[in-house]
Predict the structure.
Amino acid sequence: MTIPFLSLKEQTAALKPEVMKALEAVVDSQGFANGPPVAQFEKELASFLGCKEVVCVNSGTTSLHGALICAGVGAGDDVLTVSHTWISTVWAISYANARPVFVDLDPATCGMDPRDLEKKLTPKTKAILPVHLYGVPVDLDPILDFAKKKGLPVIEDCAQSIGATYKGKQTGSFGLVNATSFYPGKNLGAWGEGGACMTDDAEVAARLRRLRDHAQQGRHHHTELGFNWRMDGFQGAVLSVKLKHLQAWNDRRRAIAAKYLAGMKGLPGVRVLEAQEGSSPIWHIYPLFHEKRDAFRAELEKHGVQSGVHYPKPVHLQPAYAHLGLGEGALPVSEQLARTEISLPMFPELTDAQADAVVEAVRAVAKTLA
Ligand SMILES: Cc1ncc(COP(=O)(O)O)c(C=O)c1O
């Protein structure tokens, strides 16, 4: 039997009765667009994360765009970010008419390497946008220190890290305004599209609430260029149901990751990530790194283990960003991670027996390819 890289089937079936009831309530109240179910979920998520305001929008990409606008990023500005990420992180910078400037990664976290910040700073730098990739918190303290010294706002991309903590605080509660995604495959996934911004700044939150609804202040009074970024009421209702389970789901991911680490650490040619001191990842993705990535994946498949790759080509090497003029070798760590990463099966409903079988397969394949 094949072990899938990701399955939403079991969780969806288990939640169906409760979610269907919640969806029916939305139908009965006609709160279809940005209605009371969304406002209710915003309060619940803010309380979970320990931040003052959550503003829901219609995707994670949108939330990043909104966060950048509220951080004051605009035409002619540079934003320090990373290249080994889902491309939306970088799209959002382009949507804000700014230029992405890529900082290389720390292999220990797969996140922004604070040691590369000074080198990449330009006179036009306006903000710093790190990504908690794979649900592993970036080493934020040195980034926040650097940002403070330079007077720059930080925006955390938490699309893969809801519930992960850094030094006892939730990711998404450090930057001026932070962003996340509720894409169905995420650890807190909607039954459709969705995203949110998190902030402690009341003015930023108020601006985001206007921006997402055509920049209206009151009715038919538009204060700036606005958007239709409203979240479906249905998604607010689904997410309220799912949020109640998030802690348990994240803990289950941590337990699977602990099994993987114990069974795979030190295997020849294999590198796996470990939580850094003071950080508690939620392992949206559990990555393994091997120089013979494609052969490794093919062998895993023969053992009945599916895998993924996140992400095979860094953004600076994508045709869409060729105009930046960055070739191979510009970001050595990012490029190496992109060349060697394998995403192992990871979702809360993965059974212990399946996780053990993944470990056995990885051990066998590592030996074969050594
Ligand atoms: C790191 C990262 N940033 C941004 C996004 C964009 O989110 P969405 O797909 O909801 O637009 C995603 C998810 O796809 C992501 O993984």
